[in-house]
Design goal:
The complex is a heterodimer of chains A (185) and B (740). Chain A is an alpha+beta fold. Chain A has one domain (3-174): 3-Layer(aba) Sandwich (Aminopeptidase), CATH 3.40.630.30. Helix content of chain A is 28%, strand content 30%. Chain A is built from four helices and seven strands, in the order E-H-H-E-E-E-H-E-H-E-E. The longest helix of chain A is centred in the first third of the chain and has 18 residues, at 17-34. The mean pLDDT of chain A is 95. Chain B is globular, with a radius of gyration of 31 Å. Chain B is an all-alpha fold. Chain B has helices spanning 2-5, 20-23, 53-71, 84-96, 108-132, 157-180, 185-201, 221-245, 248-253, 264-268, 283-300, 309-321, 337-347, 363-376, 387-410, 415-443, 461-483, 490-529, 535-581, 595-602, 617-637, 641-668, 672-705, and strands spanning 713-718, 728-733. The model of chain B has no long low-confidence stretch (mean pLDDT 92). Helix content of chain B is 61%, strand content 2%. Chain B has 23 helices and two strands. Chain B has a two-stranded antiparallel ribbon with strand order 1-2. The chains are: A alpha+beta (185), B mainly alpha (740). At the A-B interface, helix 1, helix 2, helix 3, strand 6 and strand 7 of A face helix 2, helix 16 and helix 20 of B. Chain A: Residues 10-162 form the N-acetyltransferase domain.
């Protein structure tokens, strides 16, 4: 069984509108089914329409069986911050290194985009997810009390990419406007 | 349609007034996970569902379970407001404004359920007040969303208490009748106790009406009486909770009538959260939640018994570090949310006074008093008559209230937020260290305040106090990081302990310097008063001297406490570095970044700190390499006797520190509620120190047997039942798998 990895494309010259809409719906269904937090259509549109290249899909026989959804934005006008918003893999495909591959690819893209740091939050009790991210070098920088709707605490994890990640933003120079990245929508 | 088709795919048409990000918090219509209107109404008969005493007990018990669920981080919509009777009451209140039970009716609902529900709402109103006062975090600590329902804001507490008292009398009378007619006495007794508990809990709000003079033995009789009443009522509440807890067999049988608690309110009222099922804690968990609330409320009331600023600061630290024993290793529970927010509001009033002092004793006075008791007493700069210097000093002291206020308000935070508050404190203290040093060094030539060595050894008492506070905060931040499990593996724990030990070294040096300051002041005192003073002067000298002795005792106590930490950390570091030698502290396999970056990120909270100069990754690496070289020789010679001796000598040191600190603690003559709490913590530390010694001993034993064993170890960090700052490092030799 071959698993293929690709970014979501909103380019209608590659696929029909119907096909793209179908993919977005499949992503939504997958995330809704596997993540405890409820997300509205705006959340998906915010990530997918602004950063489709950071929505990586794992497919088996053409079906989406896993995805990672991320974004890159300027943080306090001083550094570029990558953020992993969602990661999920269908149960029957777990344990095959798909999540690891998705994270790896996503991190590489964010590093290529010159991110200074990459952050995410994950549940304190989700040992598998913690192990997965921490294997890439993510460091727990903060504990967030009762962060999720299910009342679990979260850790904020950071992967420092450049020295800027280790400096407080008060001590960093403002980025020139052309280097700032903002959400289009 | 033709216009729509012209929009390029992927382009979002929206108003420029908002970004999609703002919409991420929106509730989406027709999304079953987000749209409450899709919920189905559950039928419930408000009139005929409370006809027996067991129905009533089921509802009151359900309301307690709902109230405790709210206090346990659930929203009001899924807990208290999910009760049909509460919703009915609130709607009546909204429409008619008046809420009172009918005297003419003989129904259980009117006589008991309505007053009881009003009591529950009064309690909710009180907690909402705490939640909205800005001392705890909305959503994180307590959810204050009321679905726009008015929580009987204009109904006075006393009128509700009076109604509940009437209800109690009614239950009591009925209970007598029921005995005669052989109706279950247990049901009435349970009902009576449940209602009585509410009247006792409703005494808590009156705490905020009390104004005290801090550290005084002589409060007005009214104040003493009010305080006593609260303590006595809370003590009775604890007894009642014990009694109710014993009725769990009965309580678990009397479920509220079907659909009495439902999601209906989420559909009918202005629900701003995603739809969620109703949450009622189990009876047992509910009792436990209230027991914590009452017990912690009694604990915070001890603040009225502190007799000086040092005791107050130490008491706040005890409250801050109080943790609830939990079976879940991932859960870190501090003081109950109600008493912890109440404590701060009781301590610091809107006008900044402490405990509502009528004499105007405020945050600034408390800070000043605390500084005096640490090292600032008799500082020359304080008595300087130069108005320019005095203005500058007063400005500085005013600014220093900011980090001190952060410290005072840290107690009302949950354990995770406490660390963030301490982080802010560090930054402020660092700022004011520079400012205080600049001020004191600029005036030292005109107002010399030096050690005996002369002008080259200025005391700089204010800056010394700031540095003391900063170092304590920096160490606290590291220790809290360990407690919150932020150092995920052995490698990070090693960096964390290594840095903490580095900071403790600086603190111990500084404490010894402060002790020298106090000793110098004692010498100066003899000179300034002369040896043969009489009368009032003699008395003043004596008081002055006693205060300096107390400062010295406190600083010595701090030396012992941090020496215990340091020695325990030394043992941990030896163990971790032995494990490092055998490759157990390597970077994770797929790590994408350098260890230097990871090290620097761990040190980020101190990135801007100039003094003490923080070690670099090269320094850290150097220390590790030195250990590896020395340990390599040990392994080569197979002689581990040094480590046996090390464990023994550290054990002797620790025992000595534990003995000394007990004596010092007794000498400080702190009230028992404070010293007992500290002694409890010391016991935990002692226990963890034994585990630390045993764990290192185990590693040495494995190595002594066969050094190759060190390549086949299972090593993990165990937190449960160990001191918050000293989790156990478990080292076990991997068993060889048998091939059958």
């Amino acid at each position: 069984m071959t698993i293929t990895y690709s970014a979501l494309s909103l380019d209608t010259s590659e696929k029909s509108r119907g096909q793209i809409d179908g993919e977005i719906e499949a992503i939504r269904k997958l995330v809704n089914e596997h993540l405890s937090e409820p997300y509205s259509v705006y959340v998906y549109r915010f990530f997918l329409n602004n950063w489709p290249e950071l929505c990586l899909l794992a497919k088996s026989e053409g079906n989406i069986i896993g995805c990672i959804i991320s974004k890159v934005e300027t943080h306090r006008n001083t550094r570029l911050r990558g953020y992993i918003g969602m990661l999920t893999v269908t149960e029957q495909y777990r344990g095959q290194g798909i999540a690891k591959k998705l994270i790896d690819k996503s991190l590489d893209i964010m590093v290529d985009k010159k991110c200074d740091e990459i952050i995410l939050e994950t549940e304190v009790v989700n040992k598998k997810a913690l192990r997965l991210y921490e294997n890439f070098g993510f460091v727990r920088v903060k504990r967030l009390y009762r962060y999720y709707l299910n009342k679990h605490d979260a850790y904020r994890l950071i992967l420092p990419i450049t020295d800027k990640a280790c400096l407080r933003s008060t001590f960093l120079e403002k980025l020139p406007e052309e280097k700032c990245i903002e959400a289009r929508y | 349609m033709s216009i729509v088709s012209k929009i390029p795919y992927g382009v979002v048409i929206k108003s420029n007034q908002f970004k999609l990000l703002h919409g991420t918090h929106a509730l989406e219509v027709l999304n079953p996970k987000l749209d409450s209107s899709l919920l189905k109404i559950q039928p419930f008969d408000l009139i005929h569902s409370c006809t027996t005493i067991d129905d009533l007990n089921g509802i009151t018990c359900g309301l307690y379970r709902a109230l405790s669920a709210w206090l346990d981080n659930n929203s009001l919509s899924v807990s208290v407001l999910s009760c049909a009777y509460i919703e009915e009451l609130l709607m009546d209140y909204r429409d008619n404004g008046l809420v009172s039970s009918s005297d003419t009716s003989d129904s259980l609902k009117d006589h008991v359920l309505v007053p009881f529900s009003l009591g529950i709402l009064q309690f909710v109103k009180f907690v909402l007040k705490l939640g909205l006062a800005g001392v705890v975090c909305e959503e994180e600590d307590i959810n204050t969303q009321t679905m726009d329902l008015d929580m009987i804001q204009n109904v006075p507490l006393q009128s509700v208490i009076d109604q509940i008292e009437c209800a109690l009398k009614w239950v009591s009378d009925k209970s007598d009748v029921s005995n005669k007619s052989d109706v279950s006495d247990k049901s009435y007794s349970f009902l009576y106790d449940s209602v009585r508990l509410l009247t006792l809990l409703l005494q808590l709000p009156s705490l905020l009406e009390i104004n005290l003079e801090p550290f005084s033995d002589h409060q007005t009789p009214q104040v003493s009486e009010k305080l006593q009443k609260i303590v006595s009522d809370l003590t009775k509440a604890l007894e009642l909770l014990d009694k109710l807890g014993k009725s769990s067999d009965y309580a678990t049988k009397i479920n509220p009538p079907l659909n009495c608690f439902s999601t209906n309110v989420q559909k009918r009222r202005n629900n701003r959260s995603p739809p969620k099922p109703v949450v009622l804690l189990s009876f047992k968990d509910s009792i436990e939640n209230f027991r914590r609330l009452v017990q912690d409320s009694l604990t915070i009331l001890h603040i009225t018994e502190t007799r000086d600023s040092i005791q107050l600061v130490e008491f706040l630290k005890c409250c801050m570090n109080k943790r609830e024993a939990t079976n879940d290793e991932d859960d870190v529970l501090g003081l109950h949310v109600v008493p912890r927010s109440l404590l701060q509001l009781f301590l610091i009033r809107d006008d900044e006074t402490i405990l509502g002092s009528r004499k105007g004793f405020n945050i600034g006075s408390l800070l000043y008093d605390f500084m005096l008791r640490i090292c600032v007493q008799d500082a020359r700069i304080l008595s300087c008559s130069d108005s320019t210097i005095q203005t500058k000093l007063q400005l500085l002291l005013g600014d220093m209230k900011v980090p001190f206020f952060h410290f005072l308000s840290c107690v009302s935070q949950n354990p995770a937020r406490q660390r963030q508050f301490i982080g802010k404190e560090v930054i402020y203290w660092d700022k004011f260290q520079v400012e205080s040093e600049n001020l004191e060094s600029s005036v030292n030539s005109s107002i010399p305040d030096n050690f005996d060595g002369g002008a080259s050894f200025p005391i700089m008492p204010v800056a010394s106090f700031v540095y003391f506070s900063k170092l304590i905060s920096m160490i606290d931040l590291m220790l809290k990081s360990i407690e919150l499990n932020l150092f995920k593996d052995l490698r990070e724990l090693n960096v964390g302990y290594w840095l903490t030990s580095y900071l403790i070294d600086y603190l111990l040096q500084h404490l010894n310097r402060l002790l020298d300051v106090v000793k110098l002041r004692r010498k100066q005192l003899v000179v300034s008063y002369g040896k043969r003073v009489k009368g009032d002067k003699k008395k003043a000298k004596q008081l002055h001297a006693e205060q300096l002795v107390r400062s010295e005792s406190y600083l010595n106590y701090q030396v012992s406490r941090y020496s215990i930490y340091r020695t325990m950390i030394e043992l941990k570091l030896v163990e971790l570095q032995v494990l490092n030698y055998f490759g157990y502290l390597k970077l994770p396999k797929l790590c994408k970044v350098s260890e230097t970056l990871l090290f620097n990120l761990q040190l980020k909270p101190f990135q801007s700190i100039g003094v003490p100069e923080l070690p670099s990754f090269a320094d850290y690496n150097d220390a590790m390499a030195k250990f590896n070289d020395a340990f390599g020789q040990v392994v080569k010679n197979g002689d581990y006797i040094y480590f046996r001796k090390l464990i023994k000598s550290k054990s002797i040191d620790l025992n000595a520190f534990f003995r000394t600190i007990q004596i010092q603690l007794d000498a400080l003559e702190w009230p028992s509620f404070l010293s007992d709490s500290i002694k409890e913590d010391l016991m935990e530390l002692k226990r963890s120190s034994i585990y630390t010694e045993l764990s290192l001993g185990q590693v040495v034993k494995i190595l002594e047997k066969d050094v190759d064993n060190a390549r086949h170890l299972d090593v993990y960090i165990e937190r449960k039942k160990h001191h918050l700052y000293f989790p156990d490092i478990k080292v076990v030799k991997k068993e060889k798998k048998m091939i059958t």
